[in-house]
Design brief:
heterodimer, A: 2 strands, B: globular
């Protein structure tokens, strides 16, 4: 069985964005998704640095889509989370949840 | 019509694009440039200035991470090998310059009926370039990777050697207050770049010929 290393905070964010976007997950969309949901400004470079590392570990896979004129004729690279990636994501989120359990009481409404 | 709009739309700042291309892994280069261009096009329909500023901001903040990732992908042993090739190439050029080219020039200058100063200087340049060629060949032998193109190999292996030597020459001229010799610096730098590339190219050709003949 392959050992699953714990993922970092930004890696978890990128994987969560990948899961939300499904078949439409590519660099620019992932960046926008993270920015919209977390309010954290991030760069396409940071997204690709993380995705490259995750692809090397077998956590995500990628394939090239068709090229479009608004991208200057360059193709989009779509990313997908692999089965190994889903396991790594679950382990990391669970261990984070276990550590936080009982420490934070979430407000029912955001003021 | 929509395609016409995109074709006519201004492209992102060229310098930023070049800087980003130089720092990014080949595998993801086109994807990153494409993603940035896509967002740039949608932003510049509102304000070109804002879009330019956003693009530069993305590039400047992306570069450190991309460079680090590129170095990680290159691998520690290859970085070590590249570093050794830089040091050896610089050593060869300097040793050749001091021990061969300058000594030959001084020898000619001391001769009572020797050639004129301009001829001695030309001869010195010619002998100096042989050392640069040898250094280029040495750097190619140690630092060039077979699966990479000549251009990317040359940029990674010979580029730093060229930069170090040119900067040292420029600093020496500035320190000695001889700014009038900058034309000399330009000629010497051009010769250096040409001979580094030529030395590397000839070495690779010779190695190919040798490999082919030994395979027969």
């Amino acid at each position: 069985m392959t050992t699953v290393k714990s993922l970092g905070e930004f890696e978890i964010m990128v994987l969560a964005a990948l899961m939300r976007l499904g078949d439409e997950a590519y660099g620019a969309k992932i960046r926008q998704e993270i920015e919209e949901r977390t309010g954290r400004t991030t760069t396409v470079g940071a997204i690709y640095t993380t995705l490259s590392r995750l692809e090397e570990k077998g956590i995500v896979s990628s394939k090239l889509g068709p090229s479009t004129p608004e991208r200057g004729g360059r193709p989009k690279r779509f990313f997908r989370i692999t089965a190994h990636g889903i396991r790594a994501f679950r382990i990391s989120v669970n261990s984070l949840g276990n550590m936080l359990e009982g420490l934070i009481s979430w407000p029912k409404t955001v003021t | 019509m929509a395609e016409d709009r995109y074709l006519k739309s201004p492209s992102p700042p060229a310098l930023a694009r070049i800087a980003l291309s130089a720092c990014t892994q080949t595998e993801y280069r086109e994807d990153i440039l494409g993603d940035l261009q896509e967002e740039y096009v949608s932003l510049q329909s509102r304000s070109r200035r804002h879009a330019d500023r956003w693009y530069w901001n993305q590039v400047v903040r992306s570069v450190p991470g991309l460079v680090l990732r590129r170095l990680q992908c290159i691998g520690a042993w290859r970085i070590g090998l590249l570093f050794i090739s830089y040091i050896l190439a610089l050593l060869v050029i300097n040793l050749w310059d001091v021990q061969v080219a300058r000594k030959a020039a001084y020898f000619l200058a001391k001769q009572p009926d020797g050639p004129s100063l301009s001829i001695i200087r030309t001869l010195y340049f010619l002998v100096f370039t042989v050392g640069a060629g040898l250094a280029g060949a040495l750097a190619a032998a140690l630092g060039f990777k077979r699966e990479k193109s000549f251009r990317s190999n040359a940029l990674l292996t010979l580029g730093p050697v060229f930069l170090v030597l040119t900067c040292v020459m420029a600093a020496n001229l500035m320190a000695s207050g001889r700014q009038d010799l900058f034309s000399y610096l330009i000629i010497r730098s051009l010769l250096l770049a040409t001979m580094l590339l030529l030395g590397a190219y000839l070495f690779l050709k010779a190695r190919d010929v040798f490999n082919r003949s030994s395979n027969r």
